[in-house]
Amino acid sequence: MIEPTDAVRAAVETMHLVRERCAWSRRITHRDLVPYLIEESAELIEAIETGDAAEMREELGDLLWQVLFHAEIAAGERGEAFDIDDVARGLSEKMIRRHPHVFGDAVATTPEEVLVHWNAAKAAEKSARTSVLDGVSARMPSLALAQKLLGKAASVPGTAAPATAPGAPASEDQLGEALLALVAVARAEGWDAERALRSRLRSLTDDIRAQEGRAGTV
């Protein structure tokens, strides 16, 4: 079980002092931090997928710093201000609601049954939404967004399924159709299209570096 420690409290205090005493940090806004959040998230994903535990620990720390930074900025704002305690409290309350089989009387003995409880709780929380697309960010990477949208489309009767990919796309539109069809295959097989491409790109990166080493190029 994770217990609050002096190290966690020290991280919160460190963030407070940095925001208070660092000229650069004092002027930073939520929007200013977005590029760093994207970068740190990508670096954590890389550490996870390459199995680098030491790097993963460091990148989790960097991502935690982003959470603390946003909470510290919000704590100093007027109006609907919140702090890291509010963030943690809201998270705990949400997770308790979404796990009635852990914290309540509901029963779930399989992952599928767990998802039923999770989705029911989430639907109750988001009852004001009018579309299955509400809450889906268009800023997701394209392959990940395609996989997400295909999942949403499956819950809407009558939504057109992606066409079979043409053997050799002859236009950009056909290329888009082919890519979506491949993502549909990934979803049907339970694969992660975005992760699959990242993995292949890492192999290509290694190949390029190996060739550069053999050729003595930079």
From TrEMBL:
SUPFAM superfamilies listed in its UniProt record: all-alpha NTP pyrophosphatases
Domain NTP pyrophosphohydrolase MazG-like: 29-103
Superkingdom field: Bacteria
Molecular-function GO terms, alphabetical: nucleoside triphosphate diphosphatase activity
Example GO BP: UTP catabolic process
Keyword presence, Hydrolase: yes
InterPro entries noted in UniProt: MazG-like_dom, NTP-PPase_MazG-like_N, NTP_PyrPHydrolase_MazG
UniProt keyword list: Hydrolase
CDD domains attached to this UniProt entry: NTP-PPase_MazG_Nterm (cd11528)
Record-given protein name: Nucleoside triphosphate hydrolase
Annotated source species: Microbacterium aurantiacum
